[in-house]
Design brief:
- The chain is elongated and about 100 Å long.
- The protein starts with a helix and ends with a helix.
- The chain has two domains: 192 residues, no CATH class; 183 residues, no CATH class.
- Helix 1 crosses helix 12, helix 2 runs antiparallel to helix 13 and helix 11 packs across helix 14.
- Strand 3 and strand 4 form a beta hairpin.
- The protein is 57% helix and 16% strand.
- Strands 1, 2, 3, 4, 5, 6, 7, 8, 9, 10 and 11 form an eleven-stranded mixed beta sheet that branches.
- The longest helix is centred in the C-terminal third of the chain and has 44 residues.
- The protein is α+β, with helices and mostly antiparallel strands.
- One of its GO terms (molecular function) is transmembrane transporter activity.
Length: 417
């Protein structure tokens, strides 16, 4: 056992010395592997970071959350021309469903409306995202309040002009002053501030709720009209824990079909989108991005592998005389084999580590420049980069190493003379 360890140690030192003595060749060999590993790990890190950011933004909603709307969040067999004829979910339908569908923890009516400006005295908060929701939305998304309260069912139903500000909006308008009970102007009307949300920080999709403001949905319905298709109405539902989702969706769909008067042979003119299905769709997309990214990056790594193999063949040819002398002095074939294998693997691993370092630097710079997106270089991706580079070095160096180990000592010395 000690003999083999000593053999490996001496082979390792021979390989390191050979790399030191041929710095330019070593650099050129490293370059190909570095680019290849950089490409692969950069793709993996970018896709992982994107997936983490998207799911992080969806984490406030439970995976069991459902959204009823005329749009499908995933692929569907229904042609587009037919989907465009689907009616929006109305407020009356939401009220009917909230009364008639059991096993529901919370159900909210939501409108998507453009950003607005909110004014307080001489200060203005611009590009504020308006959350036009009914009161139950507070429980669905588990919103956290810094101060004050969210509007209640009565205020939501009557369309009382009250507003809950995101933290950044509150700071822009009030600084450190107490905003509760103060009036701000929105949609050309006065709204009373009743609450401020906790600060959450920036995300991929902007500043999140920090730059939003929530108002009762019926206030916005009066402004935009109850049948305005540009507001993309939807019903957001959080079922109770432990229920059978398929049965719940079937009952929910039947109730909506009943109120819409759909006949048995007619298809649903709405979609019940599950958040779980949306996250599965994201997983599918990211896996495809990984697959195609790896294929493209693999070509770069293949070029790097061929570069190492070529350099190793040149190295064997240059050191043929030395190999002959080593074998004539008693060096075994294994010693020569390990010597060149170590050289190839060391070249490749160093190139891989340099590639990983470059990915790390680029991820830091990208995170700093974007400000809202954090690139993550996970330990698993680092392990993959190191392992792949070692395997590439092993594969690239095996044929030159075998050819070197099988050289006849007399012929090798004669060739080198």
């Amino acid at each position: 056992m000690l003999i083999y360890l000593r053999l490996l140690k001496e082979s390792f030192y021979f390989a390191v010395n050979a790399l030191k003595n041929n710095k330019l060749r070593t650099f050129l060999s490293l370059l190909g592997v570095t680019i290849g590993i950089f490409s692969i790990i950069a793709v993996l890190a970018a896709v992982d970071s994107l997936e983490k950011e998207i799911k992080g933004n969806l984490s406030a909603l439970d995976n069991s959350t459902m959204i009823v709307t005329r749009f499908s969040f995933g692929p569907t067999d229904i042609p587009q021309w037919k989907r465009e004829q689907f009616p929006d979910v109305t407020y009356e339908e939401y009220e009917y469903l909230s009364r008639s569908v059991p096993n529901t923890e919370a159900m909210s009516y939501v409108l998507n409306v453009p950003q607005e400006s909110i004014k307080y005295n001489d200060k203005t908060a611009s590009n504020v995202g308006i959350g036009a929701v009914s009161a139950e939305y507070y429980d669905i998304e588990a919103l956290q309040l810094e101060k004050g309260r969210f509007f209640n069912m009565s205020e939501s139903a009557s369309g009382t002009p009250v507003v809950v500000l995101g933290y950044d909006v509150y700071e822009n308008l009030f600084g450190n002053a107490d905003p509760l009970g103060e009036q701000v102007r929105l949609y050309g009307r006065r709204f009373t501030v009743i609450g401020v949300l906790e600060k959450k920080g920036a995300s991929l999709f902007g500043s999140g709720h920090d730059s939003n403001a929530f108002v009762p949905v019926n206030v916005v319905r009066r402004i935009y009209g109850g049948s305005n298709r540009n507001t993309f109405p939807q019903v957001v539902i959080k079922p109770e824990d432990g229920i059978d989702n398929a049965e719940y969706i079937a009952y929910l769909s039947q109730q909506l079909r009943n109120i819409r008067g759909l006949k048995r042979e007619e298809i649903n003119n709405f979609f019940v989108n599950q958040l779980q299905g949306f996250t599965d769709f994201i997983d599918n997309i990211t896996s495809q991005m990984n697959f195609f990214g790896l294929i493209i990056s693999g070509f770069s790594l293949l070029v790097g592998g061929f570069g190492i193999a070529n350099i190793m063949f040149v190295s064997v040819k240059e050191r043929t005389n030395l190999i002959g002398i080593q074998k004539s002095l008693g060096a075994k074939n294994k010693f020569i084999l390990f010597q060149f294998l170590f050289e190839a693997v060391i070249l490749s691993v160093i190139g891989g580590l340099v590639g990983l370092f470059l990915v790390w630097v680029v991820s830091l710079l990208a995170s700093q420049l974007t400000g809202t997106f954090e690139f993550v270089l996970s330990p698993w991706n680092m392990f993959i980069g190191t392992a792949v580079s070692a395997v590439i070095g092993l594969i690239s160096g095996i044929v030159p190493a075998i050819s070197a180990s099988k050289l006849d000592p007399v012929e090798a010395i004669r060739t080198g003379m």
